[in-house]
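Risk register update: the risk that structure generation would not scale has been downgraded. Supporting records follow, first protein first.
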Amino acid sequence: MLFQRLDASVAEAREKLEAAVRVLDTNSPLAEDLVEREVNVATVAKRLDALGLAEIGLVFGRIDVEDLDPENPVAPASSTSTPATSLDRRYIGRMGMDAPEDHYRTLVVDWRAPAARPFYLATTAHPEGVHTRRHIRMRGRTVTAVHDETLISSATSLADTPDEASEIGVASEAALFEALERARTGHMTDIVETIQREQDLIIRDPSRGVVVVEGGPGTGKTAVALHRVAYLLYTWREQLEKTGVLLIGPNTTFLEYISRVLPQLGETGVVTATPGTLFPGMVPTGTDTLLAKEVKGSAEMVHILQAAVRDYEILPDKPITIMAGSVPVTLTSAMVSTARRKARRSRRPHNRAVGIFTDSLVDSLTQALVERIGADPLGGKNLLSAADRAALHDELAEEPAVAAAVSELWPILTPEQVLSKLLSSRERIDAAAADYDDDTRRGLYNPNYASDLPIATATLHPGQPGTAQIPWTPADAALLDELAHIIGMPTPDELADEAESSYRQQVEEAQEFLDIVRSSENTDLDDGFEAEILAATDVIDAATLAHRQQGEDLRSTAERAAADYTWAYGHVVIDEAQELTPMEWRMVFRHSPNRWMTIVGDVAQTSSPAGVDSWEETLAPFVDTRFRRHELTINYRTPAEIMEYANGILPAIAPDQTPARAIRSTGVPVSHVSSLSEVATHETGMTQVISVDNVTEIKGLEFDHVVIVNPDTIIATSPQGTNDLYVAATRATQTLTIVDGEG
């Protein structure tokens, strides 16, 4: 019955999609028709995507739960229940379905709905009113397995001796352990069918502030973060669809690894980025030394970048002579100093303060010019009137020589060129970082950043022509973002307004031209035909008109957000957050003015030299102590045998941290061999060899079998080498092999 309803809904949606496509006259598309068509197509396509979730598994659970007003009542099966107990039978699935013909009776409850929550919270120790729970395994439209639990009677009979799983909040269910034992495929899958109690409490946390989720390896931090995204989009759909959700991961490999989870949960409109790609257009191709990573990530870079921008706000070495018509007027260093002081005191970003700087220069030049040409030879009052002074002011403001002086003394800057010129010049570094030590200056210098482009030719997007030859590194994104705010780069909306203003100006100029032509044309026609009347848009070139019809407003929220360095997201999720540097935290929090964030990480796994040591210290500049903390305590992924090895490393990096409790055991101890040739091969599952060359790239990933080559080398290579080894050892779900003697 459910699939019949589903097929009918799919057929109806496809019919609407075809109708929406047919409605547009492609020979003469009007802008409003295009907008309407695109909106209709996007709406129906989204509906089809949601209906497609059923093919992954429409229903995966069922509960009989106590309810005073059951929608789908069933009789209690438990002998311990009283006759007055009312049970509601609820089927839990990836999407909700109801029966409109039966007063919209619920047929399937969306897993994110409040009515589905007992399915996840109930254990034999805390049944939450659930009498029976059924896990349903499906492949396509076929049920492949069913597992039933009787929770109320189990809780009664075992009240004095609850099992170990119940004590730690793990439901004793075959579905969970089947999922944990399943071979890895290279892509993370959702855990919607097996969410555990402590995970669900975090996923549905109602806080509208910063939520920090801590947990050791294998506790499901990433899965919790992704399912929280899906839950928040379900609960706050209207708000978050307008403002967007940002998901930040440590690297592109990680983002690819988790890329299928949200679509499996029915959510595709989330912006994903790494800290190194969060700045619009940024595509890092270079690498930094450990020293450079540490220096670039330090909060001290704020002062260095501010000084680097101030170095472009210069005082002339000697007076500048400007010709006002045929009269020379001298621009002195004192005039420039006054203008610079006024511009800086405005506290506006550099580029946005250029108007104040220019106005002050023009005022000073006007005063000097008035004193020169209006002086009374007899020593009396200046002969120029207020109107004369105003006219001189306006003429000077339009003088090309004044504009040239402003460009030299207070140039329009771009983040890309300021940063590239800073990092490639020892002189600029010495000036901007004069108060810092030699290591800081040495860490910043990189001759590969040299660029011969003029300061104002770079674009806001590093990946576009003009800056593509610069080998930006992931750490540069936060610096470019900081500079964009220090400089005051225009936002996409401001650029669009400027383009609109330019278009209107062209139309007005064209209309003025037509008015002149029309006023002088001969309208006496002998052939009896009416004269062809031109409109203003007829003299606007075709390219300009085509650009007008591009309709940027048709972009999704996610697309518009990803292109705007000032975009304020409704919610921000950071996975492996312990890797973020102070500069990257500044960049991220600028995207979250409402401070509604989910931060997921483990300080024991920090690999970045400028990463997180303490959540309190890291978050204090942004939210003080106003954040909520959760801890995941159960290790679902890593077998106890491997965790015994990993927990031996933990005291060296996080002595106060309590290890997560492993609930699985394979019976296979960690293997130690002296060469790769001795490593056992496995017929099934993914095997990953981890060495010093790739240890920083496996953050957040998991594999069936892991081989670690020369752990001592990993430890010695970086100040965070012991953390890296801990991360590497906890990637395995089945076996771990240590190669101690590979050359």
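Supporting record for the second protein:
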Amino acid sequence: MTRIWNSLVGKLWATILLLVSFVLFIFTVAMLEFLDDFHIKQAESSLKQAATTISNIVAHTDIDQITDDLLQDLLIEDTNAFIALGDQTVISSYQSGKNQEEIRKELLESKEFQNIFKSNKPIIRQMILPSQTEEDKMESYFVLGYPLSIENEVQGGLFIYQNPSALHETTKQTTKIVFLSAMIAFVLTTFFAFFLSSKITQPLRKMREYAFDIAKGNFDEHLPTNQSDEIGQLAVAFNQMGRQLKHHLEVINQEKEQLSSILTSMTDAVITFNRDKTILLSNPPAERLLQRWFILNGMNKELFLPDEFYAMLDHVLTFEDKLEEDLEIDGSYYRITISPLKSSSQAIRGAIAVIRDMTEQIKLDKLRSDFIANVSHELRTPIAMLQGYSEAILDGIVDSEEERNEMIRIIYDESQRMGRLVADLLDLARMESGHTTLVKESVPINPVFERITQKFSQVAKENHVHLNFHTEMSDDAVISIDEDRIEQVLTNLIDNAIRHTPAEGSVTVSLEHELSYLKVQVSDTGEGISKEDLPFVFERFYKADKARTRNKKVGTGLGLAIAKNIVEAHNGNIRVESELGKGTTFTFYLPLNG
């Protein structure tokens, strides 16, 4: 029931019913009043008509000629009458029911009706008289007092009164008819109002369901537009609105997907902050950066961003100004740009931060500058020696042929060293740029690696170093490698190990099978490398303490960098372990499955 009254159908239905009920109530009251007056006038008219008839009879005859039977014949139904002389003597009467004497007495003693014996004017009144049906009960009567004259002389008076039951019965019947008509009109109005309300609200309910479908994202439904009234026009507007919303949402989704793709493909970290510094949006690089900062700052969920970043964010949110700074945070370098985000009312609603990790770029810049400095340093010494000895020969400073040959030999050695340096630089540049092509072939493991090791047996004897080869691989084991490139790696490692191992020391080359890789180790019992130098041994031109060398041959500083690139080109990896005073072990892994 509550649902009906809260609906538009119930409200429209109730409104129409209240309006019709009010109109019917006013109509019924007015009709009852009209019928009451009509019945009163009808009663007065009938009483006057009967009185006029009797008066005409008296005028042409004698008053004494009016008998009780004649009165009965002249009176209409439910009407009583009596004729009295001026001395209140009743000479003729027709009365029915009870309290006849009391009624006559009340009328004859009435001061108002005494005037009919004195004038020719009739008197009609509504009076309260004893009931004709019950004792000790009073009822309302219509009473007519009519003077009876003979030759313009009043001889007596005619008193006619009508029983009110007839009037009441007529009024009652009429009231029933009026109420029945009102009830029929109410029922018909109710049906009509409900029917009209349903016809009006049915398309409105469809529009409501359509609006809910639109709210759920279903834009495929359409409202029927077969009406040409305002509801039909509203349905057309709804359909057009649905099409426009679908179009706009598709555009928004496309822009959202495009923005999401752009943010996802960006290498820079992008973070959007709310006014209260909570994170609203972040792309994958930003999520990785936030995870790293979260771990570094002790997993504090509230303040896990660096203090420098919070300071920049506070500045932007307070002064509404764009800010760009380069910061070093936990050993990494970042270029941070924070811009304010404004709403349509130009109020600050947050900020967007773009964070670029400059660590690799700074390292590359430093490596480039170091590379230039190292190349300059490595070339300066042989060039200076070439220039110095050449000038000495040209200037004739050398006296003996032996000294001249010694200077020429030094010039030759330094030119060879410069050639090796340039060749190594070109080789390293080709490998790092990916322009080197490996020529892989399946070769037997033990013979190849033993052959490469035994190349250095004579050098080891000259340096009084014990060179050992040990293998745990089977004789039929093979591996797919570029033999020349791997020989270059192993040559560099063994040569370094012999040069940095003192007399009576040992260098061991060992092979073993570890998981799906061939594990190659080159160990020596030399002076070792300090922990500070270990992270840099594979960098270009890096040389540990030159005091560890025995001045037999100075390298270019590129050998280990080249070795690392060759191993990685074979999908392997290389590492080093060392301890000062005990020796160094270089280990590299090559996949056995190619």
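The chain has 14 helices and 17 strands. On this basis the risk owner (M.S.) recommends closing the item.
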